[in-house]
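Re: [ENG-882] Designed sequences occasionally contain unexpected residues at chain ends

Forwarding the minimal case from QA. Structure tokens:
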């Protein structure tokens, strides 16, 4: 039977899965864990979905570099295979004598663990929805600490820790995107699909991917626009991620929702409105779109009538406010939002 403080710690760690700032939540989880299981050092690692490497999400007593190096070596040992197969976390003191001696006689303990002054350790595999997403490893300078009770306690919080370290946790919640929206994360290494979401099809468009690169370079936090996908149109939002696990910090969340063009605008009228919103004159728009100034003037009249705006300035303000734009990579700098926004 687990003692009261063990149950309380497990409950508090479970509550942390509701937090949006997962970096702080992971650190707090290690603090709560110490109330139940003693340690002198601990490392909480998540698996980078792009590279497959274990990255330290939070830790005490280990630097990120040392933890990741040790883990890269550890997962290549037979001990890691034992950790994955066992129902409970494995420890140096709580295992059958043959397993303990096999580990203590191995190179990893002799070359890595013992020189650091640790005499007991415990490792648990983190899973989410049946998939391995990381590891947690506790070390102590005292011998025979991680007995059966300690292993059961750690096992009780592994599901919550697995939820905390999964790389895409709460990524879609950062922008409160619609339930029906497709969404993907764009990182420097590649595209990450979000659980429970269809991938953003707009990312199949090379022109749009160039626009995402320009958005990253702009230093902006958010951009809303319209973009053609297949034979239709989508309302697309780009949001720079600033919280969460390291793998998604600085990534761009791209979401898309299928729509009809607002106000029954034509694609050409949308292009004209976008350039008008940049402050371009009719003559400049005509040159850029290979149209006559008279045709541009006609498009302006049409879009004013369709939007119900009384002036060009009112129409461009509407376009910027509601993201009724289709900017090119070279133009988006004037449309990105660089500070907090209350708009959904």
């Amino acid at each position: 039977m687990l003692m009261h403080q063990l149950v309380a710690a497990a409950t508090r760690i479970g509550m942390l899965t509701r937090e949006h700032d997962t970096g702080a939540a992971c650190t707090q989880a290690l603090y709560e864990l110490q109330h139940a299981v003693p340690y002198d050092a601990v490392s909480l690692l998540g698996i980078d979905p792009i590279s497959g490497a274990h990255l330290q999400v939070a830790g005490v007593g280990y630097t990120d570099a040392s933890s990741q190096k040790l883990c890269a070596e550890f997962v290549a040992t037979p001990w890691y295979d034992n950790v994955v197969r066992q129902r409970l976390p494995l420890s140096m003191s709580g295992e059958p004598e043959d397993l303990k001696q096999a580990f203590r006689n191995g190179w990893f303990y002799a070359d890595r663990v013992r020189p650091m002054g640790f005499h007991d350790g415990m490792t648990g595999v983190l899973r989410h929805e049946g998939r391995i997403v990381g590891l947690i490893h506790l070390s102590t300078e005292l011998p025979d600490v991680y007995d059966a009770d300690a292993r059961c306690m750690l096992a009780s919080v592994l599901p919550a820790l697995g939820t905390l370290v999964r790389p895409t946790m709460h990524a879609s919640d950062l922008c409160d995107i619609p339930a029906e929206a497709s969404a993907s994360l764009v990182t420097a290494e590649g595209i990450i699909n979000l659980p429970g979401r269809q991938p953003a099809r707009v990312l199949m468009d090379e022109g749009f991917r160039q626009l995402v690169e320009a958005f990253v370079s702009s230093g902006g936090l958010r951009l809303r626009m319209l973009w053609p996908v297949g034979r239709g149109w989508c309302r697309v939002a780009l949001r720079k991620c600033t919280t969460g696990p390291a793998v998604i910090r600085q990534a761009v969340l791209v979401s898309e929702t299928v729509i009809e063009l607002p106000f029954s605008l034509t694609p050409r009228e949308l292009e004209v409105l976008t350039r008008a919103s940049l402050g371009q004159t009719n003559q400049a728009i005509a040159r850029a779109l290979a149209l006559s100034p008279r045709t541009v003037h006609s498009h302006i009249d049409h879009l004013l009538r369709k939007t119900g705006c009384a002036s060009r300035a009112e129409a461009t303000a509407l376009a910027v406010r509601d993201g009724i734009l289709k900017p090119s990579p070279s133009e988006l700098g004037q449309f990105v939002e660089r500070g907090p926004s209350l708009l959904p």
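QA comment: On inspection the terminal residues look reasonable. Confidence is low (pLDDT under 50) at residues 340-344. Proposing we downgrade this to a documentation issue.
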